[in-house]
Amino acid sequence: MVAEFNVYCAICCCPLGGSCEVGSTNPWHLKLRRARVARRTYSRRTGSLYYETDEEEEDEKEERLSKMPWLRETAEADVDEDTASVNSDDYDHSYDPDVISPEDLSWLNTVFALGIAHRKPGPRTYMLCDCYYDDRNRVYIHDTDPDDSDEQSRYFAYGVSDLTDPPVFPVHWECIVLLSRAIGISSVASIQKNVLYDVMLDLADFSCLNLSYGDITGPDQDWQCIPGEEYSVVCPTLEFDMGHQIIVDFEAGLFESQKPLELGNKVIKDPFTNMPYDVIYLILQYLPGDSIMALNRASWAILTLTRSNSFWKNRLAGDMVWLWELQQYFESPESSRVRNYKSLYLWLDKKTQPLYGLTGTFMGIANRRRIWGPCTELAERYHRKLHGSLQ
């Protein structure tokens, strides 16, 4: 007998409906869950191996907490207390109720199916229809003829089917909205469904597409609600008040800027000194922000060339196209408050990293940043296929 698997959104690789479990608010369950997240966070950030069955020695625990003091309170679960009677599902296979609520998960229930209408006379008809997922890769289309039989309205996702009909690709509505932005069109209605369908068909795998969906471990035979990965199921298109966050978070954390040191005359050898600016600029275009910061520490010439606000403002616009609230902020009078675009870049880059253990205001934006990766690849393939079909 072949094992049964759930399938996931073709764009974000998250569950199609009610597969997420928000955990118990029992104080002991909260303590155990957060201690587990703290240990996993530490092991991931230090690059060390961590096994759930390991018994952590006190000296190891103290070393971990000394390096991550902000996690001390949540990590100090009493390992001597008897946990035999505690069901691990209550704390290790459910999300933290103080981090995410059932209402935050409601967007996962709005699912559409991209596919080819089967058993219809005439030429192929491509559809993007409201649907519901009925577990184990079965999808039922809402927008069908009332006289249609159950078999006619039923489709199978990703080609896992006992039928000869082409598969459909389920997507969350919010994810297809995000994809339309990545493609560069004004609305979902403008998507060429036949082109996008062919793109997804080329990438079809068993339960999702053959894309990199980021560092998440939820998608499995069944969806796993991993504590610490709550951000991955937060709606990526939630409204975000960028101006407010810049005032209460970014500006509040800034120190009085100091006059930059002039150390050029102390540089003994710098290979970038004699390199034309245009060439350096082209090189920097291909580097992420953290790599530029590393070059700043290694090269005085690079540091000098990247001091200007205009450089970092351009980087913000080019590297964070998924953060459209920032672009809107730049167009508002409020943007005159920003004096240091380099600091703003570093702050946003850190705040929006889709990392295990992330909580707080930026969870939706971090999930958007994660999903923007597969959106970008789909958009590139979409344009190549679209332009190829027009030639």
Structure notes:
By secondary structure, this protein is α+β, with helices and mostly antiparallel strands. The chain has 15 helices and five strands. The protein has helices at residues 27-46, 58-67, 72-75, 89-92, 150-153, 173-183, 193-203, 242-250, 277-285, 289-298, 300-305, 309-319, 324-330, 341-351, 363-390; strands spanning 111-116, 126-133, 138-141, 154-156, 169-172. It starts with 26 loop residues before the first helix and ends with a helix. The model is unreliable at 77-85 (pLDDT under 50).
Number of helices: 15
Euclidean distance between termini CA atoms:
47 Å
**Order of SSEs, N→C?**
HHHHEEEHEEHHHHHHHHHH
Could you estimate the helical fraction of the residues in percent?
A: 25-40%
Q: Could you tell me the number of beta strands?
A: 5
Layout: helices, strands, pairs:
Blueprint: H1 27-46, H2 58-67, H3 72-75, H4 89-92, E1 111-116, E2 126-133, E3 138-141, H5 150-153, E4 154-156, E5 169-172, H6 173-183, H7 193-203, H8 242-250, H9 277-285, H10 289-298, H11 300-305, H12 309-319, H13 324-330, H14 341-351, H15 363-390
Antiparallel strand pairs: 1-2, 1-5, 2-3, 3-4
Helix pairs in contact: 6-15, 7-15
